[in-house]
């Protein structure tokens, strides 16, 4: 029975660490750019878009489709960076164990 109590205690400690990590990561910003830096996107660790910056030069050509593609690419890349960072941190907490439904 003692082993079961130890396992439950360890699970509770891990759960607290994960909750703290999720809070901290939500406060972090992750940035990516596309089009040689003409479009920059910043997302939070919660995958929320915080800022989108478009260089006025990106508007000069009048190619709306290209600008849309650059925006999507920058946002997707920033989201990927945020996810990978969270996965690395989660792996460190869980000892490399993949926890279902986390990320």
UniProtKB/TrEMBL annotation:
What Pfam families does its record include?
YbaB_DNA_bd
Classify the source by domain of life: Bacteria
Give the species this sequence originates from: Desulfovibrio legallii
Q: Where in the cell is it found?
A: Cytoplasm, Nucleoid
Q: What are the recorded GO MF terms, alphabetically?
A: DNA binding
Main localization of the protein? cytoplasm
Question: What quaternary structure, including any partners, is listed in this protein's UniProt entry?
Answer: Homodimer.
| Keyword NAD attached | no
Query: Its GO CC terms?
Result: bacterial nucleoid; cytosol
What InterPro entries does the record point to? YbaB-like_sf (IPR036894), YbaB/EbfC (IPR004401)
Q: Which UniProt keywords apply?
A: Cytoplasm, DNA-binding
What is the role of the protein in this entry?
Binds to DNA and alters its conformation. May be involved in regulation of gene expression, nucleoid organization and DNA protection.
Asked if the keyword Nucleus belongs to this entry, the reply reads no
Q: Which family does it belong to?
A: Belongs to the YbaB/EbfC family.
Name this protein carries in UniProt: Nucleoid-associated protein SAMN05192586_10143
């Amino acid at each position: 029975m003692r082993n079961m109590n130890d396992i439950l205690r360890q699970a509770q400690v891990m759960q607290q660490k994960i909750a703290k990590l999720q809070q901290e990561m939500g406060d972090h910003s992750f940035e990516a750019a596309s089009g040689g830096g003409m479009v920059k996107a910043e997302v939070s660790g919660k995958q929320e878009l915080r800022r989108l910056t478009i260089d006025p030069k990106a508007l000069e050509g009048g190619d709306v489709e290209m600008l849309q593609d650059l925006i999507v690419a920058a946002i997707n890349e920033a989201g990927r960076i945020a996810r990978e960072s969270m996965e690395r941190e989660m792996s460190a907490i869980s000892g490399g164990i993949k926890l279902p439904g986390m990320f």
